[in-house]
Design a protein that fits this description.
The chain crosses the membrane at residues 6-21. With 206 residues, this protein is mainly alpha-helical. The protein folds into three domains: 1-92, no CATH class; 96-131, no CATH class; 133-206, no CATH class. Helices cover 56% and strands 5% of the residues. It is built from ten helices and two strands. Strands 1-2 form a two-stranded antiparallel ribbon. Helix 8 runs antiparallel to helix 9 (169-182) and helix 9 (169-182) crosses helix 10. The longest helix is centred in the N-terminal third of the chain and has 20 residues, at 2-21. The radius of gyration is 22 Å and the shape is extended. The termini are far apart.
């Protein structure tokens, strides 16, 4: 009985590890991480630095295995990002959906739809209803560029001391959205902006 149990356990482990390290067809190279845990334990405190190290080894486009058998493709330079989301944006229009996000958008919204009839109708609706507000007059790029000086000013105010970047970046991103949707921005310490950032954060953490 013991030998049979040991053999069965060995076989299951072998098959599990084999399929873990087996790379799907047409998937770029990349680290496989620890079986069943993926690269999560390897990311450490600074995931972006680890991704940069993997870029040196595997190139600007590589795959990583996260918890379970979920495969992620990482784009780690401007050219590959531009190629996917600008030059071939129709092919890369979709995004992975999370339960909290699905409850929020109910399968709608350009950012999370695959290219197709529904994407086209949503895009047409957006173009029609955004016409005449800030996004039509200035454009998204202009709204982003307008926010950059305020972000740099806040970064310089740290006077070279260590600080938590996530206490600043979400406010900057939220201000860009406010500029696009409402045609105005808020100071980083404004209560309204802080409330909006918290609401977005609460949705992400659900």
């Amino acid at each position: 009985m013991f030998d049979f149990t040991f053999a069965a356990l060995f076989l299951v482990t072998f098959v599990g590890v084999y399929y873990w390290y087996r790379r799907p067809k047409n998937v770029p190279p990349g680290p496989r991480g620890i079986p069943f845990l993926g690269v999560v334990p390897l990311l450490g405190k600074w995931p972006e630095r680890q991704c940069n190290e993997w870029k040196k080894k595997y190139g600007p486009v590589f795959s990583i295995r996260v918890l379970g058998r979920e495969e992620w493709i990482v784009l780690n330079d401007f050219e590959s990002i531009n190629q996917c989301f600008v030059k071939q944006s129709n092919k890369f229009s979709g995004r992975p959906l999370f339960e909290a996000l699905e409850k929020l958008i109910h399968g709608k919204g350009l950012s999370f739809l695959d290219y197709g009839p529904l994407w086209k109708s949503q895009r047409k609706f957006g173009q029609k209803n955004f016409r005449g507000i800030e996004i039509e007059r200035k454009g998204v790029d202009s709204c982003v560029n307008d926010e950059v000086p305020f972000l740099l000013e806040r970064l310089r105010a740290t006077d070279g001391k260590a600080f938590e970047i996530m206490s600043i970046l979400p406010k900057s991103s939220c201000n860009v959205l406010c500029s696009i949707i409402m045609g105005k921005r808020y100071e980083y310490d404004d209560d309204t902006l802080c409330t909006l950032v918290k609401l977005f954060s609460d949705v992400d953490n659900q």
